[in-house]
Every structure is written in structure tokens, then in C-alpha cells.
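> run fold LysR family transcriptional regulator
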Amino acid sequence: MDKLGAMRAFVRVVQTGSFSATGRELNTSQTAISKKVAALEKEIGVKLLTRNSRELALTPSGTEYFNKCVAILGEIDEAEASAREDVAVPKGVLRISAPIAFSRLVLASLLSEFNSLYPEISIDLLASDQHVDLISSGVDVAIRARNLEDSTLIARHLFDNVLMLFASP
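> ok
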């Protein structure tokens, strides 16, 4: 049994005062809603509602259960909203490793623009021409001009770098 779904159905039945209205609201039949509430009552071993052809009424146990269900479902909704906010707004520390010249000539302006787009992300730039162990140094993104030594890492081609040599006679 989907206990959470049954709890939501039970709460909506009490709030709307009708199995039919709840069924319409949840895009399902009155019978399906009635079965969910009956299964919930059977699962917890308590009669929650007294019903007749004209009205629904909460039993004393049903009143207590309803109040706790409303609180629980509210907490679940808040937790889900909070989780969505965390995903919706990127935040945290982004550790980037890149060669010194590339950091100065290219990344500086790009990171400034990135920071204005994502103010909740702080950048920790590790500018070094030395080999850096990405795992042990906690680097999230590394920009390199050579092939990967560690095949467990994921590489993306960013651009072609054209080198030219100039000399005078």
C-alpha cells in the first residue's frame, strides 16, 4: 500500500468533505479514493471516518490521525520545496585547476562573468603549471592542454589551441 498516497487522499477527503470531490481533484474515481481510505483504516487498525449516504464525520481517532497527517504532509512538502530550492540555485565552492598563463589570460574574465551569473558559488582557482593530483586536492574542474593520464576521469574538448613560432633572421 502507498501509505503516503493514502494519507494524502484521507486528508483531502476530510478537507473537501467528499470522496467524489477528492476523486475529481486527484483525477481518479470516487471508488479508488474510498478504497485507499479503507486500506489505510485496515492498515492502522482504526476506523477513521463514519460515513453514510449524506455525510462524513471523523471519529475521535480519525480527528487525531487527521491532525498528525496534516502536520506530516506539511513537513514532507516543506522538505521537497527545500530540496528543489537547493537544486534551483547552485551554491558552494567550485575548485578549478588550470595553467598559470591560461588562468591569467582567459579564465580571469570568464570567472568574473560566471560569478555575476552564479553569486552563490565561490571559485577557488588553483593556478599552477605543475602536475596536480585532482582527486587528493579536491579539484572539481581541471583545464589541461594534454591527454588524461587517469582514465577514470571524464574529459571534454573545449577548444583547439594553435601555436605559432616566430623568429627573426
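The mean pLDDT is 89.
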